Amino acid sequence: MHRRVSLHQVAMLGEPTAAFIAHCSAIGVPHMTLAAPMLAQPGDLDGARAALAAGSARCHTVNHPVAMGSDLERASPEAETAALLGAIDLAASLGAPNIYMVSGGRGSLLWEAAAERFAAIIAPCLQPAREKGVRLLVETASDFNVDIHLAHTLDDTALLAEIAGIEVCIELAACWFEAGLRDKFRRIVPRAGLVQVCDYVAGDRTAPCRAVPGDGMIPNAWLLGELLDAGYAGVFDLELLGPRIAAEGPREATRRAAEALSHLLDKLGA
Predict the structure, then answer these.
(1) Its pTM surpasses 0.90
(2) How far is the CA of 63 from the CAs of 98, 186, 191, 199, in angstroms?
(3) Which of 30, 46, 109, 185 could form a disulfide with 230 if both were Cys (CB 3.0 to 4.6 A apart)?
């Protein structure tokens, strides 16, 4: 398996984190993204620590949702800051150098006002994150998730990251169809700590509607090649969920996806 392949836990949220970690080790995936809400379940974190100690896969990223229970208009900034500080401690304790976030929805706020509220939540966490060696990232997410997120284009993601003083997670599923990607990648890659990969099959209308790389129409070879040319040196995280993944079975779909991504990265000389 290529050393830059990562697998996101979202594919196996129906199982304990320990089972997901064991699966990553079994199929040879070297990195993983773990979901903070799963680790908060009773007993899950202890099981995860034991599985990490016993296996070969490393926790590279923790996914932390901001204002998920409400939105940025109604959320308590103090409570959200405290939750993020806890996630930073968690990531550091697991040896994960990244936390990527969804921002929380805007409620009735204009985008700019919601972005400032997100930045105010993040601000007290910047120094603690630096001291613990954890990078804070905000992702690009489909506008289907407008109720839980603000940034639905690469340009908006870069702007939100700039306002908050953090870095970027490039979610290709949410931006592969944008114009001018070569130039955008060259501008954003210096602030990119994670790239997320999947595929889309033409005609799918469910959300989410992810597919194994190579099964659909996303030009992943071109996208990853451009990201590499722009200087991206991090891991590529497979974020797989939706009816196609469930129908195939998450274990088989993630194994096949990891092998396909590994082969592509080898071909690109990553």
Answers:
(1) yes
(2) 9, 25, 18, 20
(3) 185
